[in-house]
Backbone:
């Protein structure tokens, strides 16, 4: 995965659930952000994967704090996604657990103009229905 957000990352890209990404997408039911973890390398990887990108060992889901900071972002003013009001903030959030652990997401519950690189954020979850199953899309809001 590239380190920097493409400006056209969709606002709410909803997944097809697999055995490997299910924990990530349903962890929000318990308010928990679950990230793929390699026990051998003791490292996280994102997006969710079956095998570690470093050692190809089996990864397991592991709860993280849900705390991070904005690595980069863009404010979208184009109504690409029906039902998603503009403007909205598309961001890459760097999670506190690991320097290179980053997540493409949206920043919510703040004025888009107030967003800046380095802003400390906390995960929250939006519930959506995908093929009869609830998935919990992780979005982030400013902390405190
Ligand atoms: Zn590994």
Residues:
């Amino acid at each position: 995965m590239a380190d920097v957000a493409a400006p056209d990352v969709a606002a709410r890209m909803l997944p097809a659930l697999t055995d490997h990404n299910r924990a990530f997408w349903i962890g929000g039911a318990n308010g928990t952000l679950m990230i793929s973890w390699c026990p051998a390398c003791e490292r996280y990887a994102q997006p969710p994967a079956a095998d570690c990108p470093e050692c190809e060992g089996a990864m397991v889901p592991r709860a993280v704090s849900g705390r991070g900071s904005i690595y980069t972002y863009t404010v979208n003013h184009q109504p690409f996604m029906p039902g998603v009001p503009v403007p909205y903030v598309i961001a890459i959030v760097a999670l506190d657990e690991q320097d290179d652990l980053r997540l493409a997401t949206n920043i919510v519950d703040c004025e888009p103009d107030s967003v800046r690189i380095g802003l400390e954020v906390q995960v929250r979850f939006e519930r959506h229905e995908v093929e009869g199953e609830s998935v919990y899309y992780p979005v982030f809001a400013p902390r405190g």
